[in-house]
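This section describes the prediction task in plain terms. A model, or a person checking by hand, is given the sequence of a single protein chain and must write out its three-dimensional structure as a string of tokens. No templates, partner chains or ligands are provided. The sample shown here is typical of the held-out split.
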Amino acid sequence: MNETKGDFTPDATFVIAAYNAADTITRSIESALAQDGVAVEVIVVDDCSADATAALVAGIRDTRVRLIALAQNRGPGGARNAGFAAARGRWIAILDSDDTVMPNRLKRMIERAEAAQAQIVVDNLDVISRDGKSTRMFSEAALAALPELTLASFIESNVIFRSEHNFGYMKPVFERRFIEAHGLRFDEALRIGEDYILLASALACGGRCAVEPSAGYIYHIREGSISRVLQIEHIDAMVAADERFLASYTLNPQSQRMQHKRRRGFRQARSFLILVEQLKNRSLADALKTALADPFALRHLRMPIAARLRRLMTRPTNSAAMMAAAERSPLGEDPHTSKG
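The expected answer:
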């Protein structure tokens, strides 16, 4: 483990959970260390990588960088929890091992949070596609019009398949004192969607979340991300996590309404995934039953397969074409999870 100087007290701690991230970890660390006007430390938690991730981090001579090498794989939530436990900064920032941050990000965010007397702050993101093109995730004007991120608006934004991007993509910065006072940690039972539950829990226990409209976080899309393709087991795990969340916190009426929408979205998405799997397996009778039992799933997702299925109901000869479409159709992207 790299040691830091005893008299160094950081303003913020970057926590980076890393698993087989040898090709990107150095870039992420360097961007975190390059923060202007803010004293930072960087804690990298290696989650039993099989590549050179741990060796690369251990070789960094900057005393602001610390390596925690886990004895067993704990998943993204468990790795981040280990980083949270070791953090010494007044603020804790989450950074994925394949992403980067802009030099003025933390200074802007902390200033905005302190001015608003907020315990949490989020900002905009730039998305770098595989071909190198950059796209701003949210309209700066829309975020500027949002005085703070409430629990109700956060849940509503995270209704599955509601939009391409939602507030679940945001990487919040937390006041460490607030996190510790409420015993907030990532749900280690989740391998997908753990970011959502942590921020929802922080909002549910009274945290105020300021919004910085400018983009300071750079989200790099890459192959192999667990958040890109949604599967039935992911939905089931997130539904179970939501139930644990609801058992722990009392929601106000508006948040309860948004939670009802989120639950319905999961149900519809699950029906759609079952439908696609049935079509791939050429179980047309079962597919028709699924569609008839939950027609809103098809209408909600608005995918080409829905129109093909409607035609199938009246013209069975289209079954071969419909099954071919199912083979080409993605199972869907999870819009509110970390890349893990």
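For orientation: The longest strand covers residues 209-220.
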